[in-house]
C-alpha cells in the first residue's frame, strides 16, 4: 500500500466501516423480507435533508441528518399505516411510499434551488453521495456506527436469530417484539442516514441488499451468513473506493456498488452452498451415482394395440 | 383441582370481523383437549389471544390462577408450521435450543447442558439423527416434530398446539399423539387445535367445540355428539358415519 | 363483486383526472404563447420613426421588457438602460445555470418579453430548446456568442468555457452586442443607451485596472486560485492567476479521490495559503482538500466564498456585476497575500 494518502485512507476506512455496518443490518432486513424497505427508507430520507436545510436557511449537518432520520421513520410509519388500513400489499405500499417521498424530496430540492440567498449547493450530493470527500471525522462516525451495530448484533445474537426465524414463538417466550422491531429500525435508519452522505440515497440500498444476498450462497448457518455479509459489505466498500482512485474522475459511490455486484456474481456462480457451479457438480455426482447403481436399461416393450 | 386455564368472557376481532364472542371455559389439569370448529371459527385466534399475541377486546385469561406474564415458563406454545420461513439457515438442534432461550437468559450462549436437553427432546420425537440437518431439508412431518421437540424442551405444564397434525404423514401423526399422551400421563395438560373430526374421539379425552363462541365443552364421550357437531359446523358438516353418542 | 365495480369506477375517475390535467397543462402553455403577445402597442405620443419597427417596448411607458437568464447580463443592462428598460433574470443568486431547467412561469416570462438575452456557449445547457422555440417569435440573442471565437478559452475536454463574464473586455463585447439590440428596438433611446454604456464601460475598465494591480502585487508562485469549480478560467487569464478546479466546467460530475489528491499535491507543492468555495458548490469537497493538506503539513485556509455561476442577492452590493466582481477580487487578494 505504498503512497496511500491520508484522504485515500479516510475514504477507504470510512467505506470499510459503512460497508460492514450495512452488511450486518442488511442481513437482518433480508430475513425480515424487508430488503425493499431499506431502499424505500433511503429514498424517504431525501425530503428530510432538504427540509432540515430549508428551516435553518443554512447547511448544518446534524440538523440535516436529523431531518433525514425523521423523514425515513415517517416513511416507515407510512408503510405500516397503509398496510393496516387498506388492502394494499407490503411491497406495493413500499413502492408508493418510496416514489412519493423521493418525488417530494426532488420537488423541495427544486424549490430550494430557486430560493434567494444561495448556500443550498451540495444538497443534491445526498442523492448520489460523495464518498471521495470523506475526512477524519467521517471515518470516526462510520467506525462508531459499525461498532454500535456489531455490539447490538453480538450481544443479542440468539435473540435476533429467534426473532427473525419465528417472531410468534419469540413473543411466546416473553421477547418484546416491539423492542426488537424498534432496535432493528433504529439501526437501519442510523446506517442509512450516515451512509447517504457517502453513497447517496439511490445507491445506499445496494450496500444494504447485495452483501446479504451474496452471503446466502455460501453458508447454511445464520451466524456465518451475518459474518460473511459484513465481510462482503466492507470488502465492496474498500475495493470500490480503491478502484475509484486509480483514474481521475471516477466516482467512488458507483464503483462500490459495482464491487458489491461483482461479489454477488462470484457468489452466484461459486458459492459453496448454493452456487451454480456447486449445484452443477452435485447434480453430476448424483447422476453418476445413479448410473453406478445401474438400472437395467432395456427399452420398454412395444405394447400391442388395445382392443 | 385448580384449573390450569380459565377463560372468561373473551372477545377478540380480526380487522372488522368479530372472531371470538364471549368465550368462557375452564381446563382441568391432566387433560388432552381438542379445539374444533369450522374455518374462521377463531381457533387459532383463541390461542393467540390467550397468549397475548393478538389483541384482546375484553375478557380475562388466567394460567395456573395468575396472569400469563407470570406463568410464561409453564406454558409451551407450538404455532402453526406455516408461520415460519423454513428456508432460514439453521439446523434442527438449533431450533429446539430456541425453546430454552427463556432459560438461558439474555447475554449468555447455550451451554453443553442445554444442548443435551435439546438433543434429548429431539430423541423423544425420534429426530435425534436429524440434529444437524438443515430445516429446509426436512419434510413436513419432520418439521412438525422439531417444533414439538422445541415445546417439550421447555418442560412446561400446559401445552398449546395449533394444528400440529395438519399435513403430516401417518408415522408423524402417530408419534405426535403418542408424545401428547405421554405428557398427559405425566400430569401435563394439553390443548390442541385439531382439524380432523374423524380422530377426535380416538385421540382426545376432552373437546372444546368453538364457533366464535363456545358451543360445547367437556369430556369427549358426553359432549362430542351429532347435535353439538351440527350446531358447531352449521351446514358445513357431512356425516360419514354415525358418531357414537 | 361490489369491490370490482368500485375499482372500475375509480380507474375511470383517475383517467378523467389525468386527461383534465393534461388539457390544463396544454392550455396554460398555449395561453403563455398567445397571452401577452400582442403587446407592442406603440406609444402614440412618439414621433413615428424608422420603417415600422417597434417604437419602444411593451413595458410601462414604452420601456423595453428584457428577460435574461443570468443576472450578470440583467444587472448591467438595467443600469445601462435605466428606466427605459424593465429587466428580469430567470436565474437568481445561488442558482446553477448549467443545470437549470425552465419552469412554466419562466416560459410565460419569456413569452411576454420584448427581447431575450442569454449567455450561450452551452452555459444554459438545459434551456436551448426553449430558446429555439421562443426565437421563432421574439428576438433572442446569445450575448456570449457575439464574442470573437479566438478569444474564448476551452477546457481539457475541448468544450468552450462559457464563464466569459469574468473577462472584463470580453464581457464588454457581449454587453455591447446586447445594447445594439436594445437600440434597434427603441431607436429613440439609442443615444441614451450609448451614453450610459460608455459610462458603465468606464467603470468596468476602472475595475479591471484595480484588479490587475492588486493581483500583480501577490508573488507569482502564490498566485494560484483553487476552488471546487472550473469557472474562473477567464478570470485567471485576465489577472495572470493560475486556476485549478476540482471538477470540470459543468457541475454534473461527481468528484473523485484522484481529483482531490491532485489538488492537495498542488497546494502543498506551491504552498498556496488559501482555497475558495463558491455559492453554488458543495463545501464538503473543499473541506476534504483542506484536511488532506493539513495532514501533509500545509495549512491551507478557507479563503472565503466566491461567486462563480451566480451573483449575490438582489439589493446587495454583490448583487451587482461590478460589486460581485470586486468581491471576488478582494477576497482572493486578501487570502493569497495574507500570511505566507
Rounded to the nearest angstrom, the distance between the terminal CA atoms of chain C is: 83 Å
CATH architecture of the largest domain in chain C: 3-Layer(aba) Sandwich
Beta content of chain C: 5-15%
Averaged pLDDT of chain C, please? Answer: 78
CATH class of the largest domain in chain C: Alpha Beta
Terminal Cα span of chain A: 85 Å
Number of discrete domains of chain A? 1
The CATH topology name of chain A reads ABC transporter involved in vitamin B12 uptake, BtuC
Q: DSSP helix count of chain A? A: 12
SS class of chain A: mainly alpha
Structural features, described:
- The complex is a heterotrimer of chains A (307), B (245) and C (340).
- Chain A has 307 residues and is mostly helical.
- Chain A has helices spanning 6-31, 35-56, 61-85, 90-113, 125-128, 136-155, 157-165, 167-173, 177-216, 222-245, 252-270, 276-292.
- By secondary structure, chain B is an alpha/beta fold.
- Chain B has a domain at 5-82 and 156-233: Rossmann fold.
- Chain B has helices at 43-50, 68-71, 92-98, 101-104, 112-124, 140-153, 170-185, 200-203, 220-223, 226-233; strands at 5-14, 17-27, 32-36, 58-63, 75-78, 158-162, 189-193, 206-211, 213-219.
- Chain B has a six-stranded mixed sheet, with helices on both faces. In chain B, strands 2-1-4 form a three-stranded antiparallel sheet.
- In chain B, α7 links the parallel β6 and β7 (189-193).
- Residues 1-7 and 25-54 of chain C have low confidence and may be disordered.
- The longest helix of chain C has 33 residues, at 2-34.
- Chain C folds into two domains: 60-209, Rossmann fold (3-Layer(aba) Sandwich); 216-337, Rossmann fold (3-Layer(aba) Sandwich).
- Chains in contact: A-B, A-C.
- The interface between A and C is large, with 36 and 35 residues.
Topology:
The complex is a heterotrimer of chains A (307), B (245) and C (340).
Chain A: H1 6-31, H2 35-56, H3 61-85, H4 90-113, H5 125-128, H6 136-155, H7 157-165, H8 167-173, H9 177-216, H10 222-245, H11 252-270, H12 276-292
Helix pairs in contact in A: 1-6, 1-9, 1-10, 2-3, 2-4, 2-9, 3-4, 3-9, 6-9, 7-8, 9-10, 9-11, 10-11
Chain B: E1 5-14, E2 17-27, E3 32-36, H1 43-50, E4 58-63, H2 68-71, E5 75-78, H3 92-98, H4 101-104, H5 112-124, H6 140-153, E6 158-162, H7 170-185, E7 189-193, H8 200-203, E8 206-211, E9 213-219, H9 220-223, H10 226-233
Parallel strand pairs in B: 3-7, 3-8, 5-6, 6-7
Antiparallel strand pairs in B: 1-2, 1-4, 8-9
Chain C: H1 2-34, E1 64-68, H2 71-81, E2 85-89, H3 104-111, E3 115-118, H4 128-135, E4 140-142, H5 168-185, H6 190-216, E5 224-227, H7 233-239, E6 242-245, H8 257-270, E7 274-278, H9 283-295, E8 301-306, H10 321-337
Parallel strand pairs in C: 1-2, 1-3, 3-4, 5-6, 7-8
Helix pairs in contact in C: 1-3, 2-5, 2-6, 5-6, 6-10, 8-9
